[in-house]
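agent> Task received from the user: take the single chain below, predict its 3D structure, and emit structure tokens. No templates, no multimer pairing.
agent> Plan: (1) validate residues, (2) run structure prediction, (3) serialize to tokens, (4) report one or two observations.
agent> Step 1 OK, no nonstandard residues flagged.
tool_call: predict_structure(input=
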Amino acid sequence: MKKKSIPTCTNCNIFNCGRLEKKFPDFCLSVKYREDSFRVLKIYQEDKENAKIARAAGEIEGVYYGKLTRVEEIIELFKKIGAKKIGVATCLGLINEAKIFAHILEVKGFEAYSVICKVGAIDKTVINIPPELKLQKDCHESICNPILQAEILNKQGTDYNVIVGLCVGHDSLFTKYSQAPVTTLITKDRVLGHNPAAALYTSNFFYKRLLAKE
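)
tool_result: status=success, residues=214
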């Protein structure tokens, strides 16, 4: 027998948490985790870095909602929090986009330090990826190395790091090992031109396979 799932935010159609104009549903997490909410509030208020980022993000939303591209929003964030040295963790497949972004950062007065995913040039088989799973057979093919990307940017003392198209999972490892805060400029989706939301928008027709039960 399939275990009944616990209702969470995606089961809600009220969203009273946004403006407090309605009544919370019985399962609402804002009610269930009220004490945690007060505890977390102190983090925003008392932790200098967290408070600075949270306020800057809120101010950017309030002033520029629907007006700026994500590139511009990221730049505004850096300006507001006083970030100077920006790490760019890029996929090899999006190196041209990373070059453009790094140039934009430098034009805007920031120092950009980029690290490509293949840094270290370690063959995939060294970490037990089978040779037959290489994209090109019978040759050296380097692993994506997000941990080394993060460590290099840590050594460089970047104020903030930006992900440009790291693979699913590699982005997780980069974020895990990055000492600086991380934001994402591009989320890789090779099939949909790096617009993964398109699969959700078309899930009822073009990508109906996504709703097939397994």
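agent> Step 4: summary for the user.
Residues 35-67 form one domain.
agent> Done.
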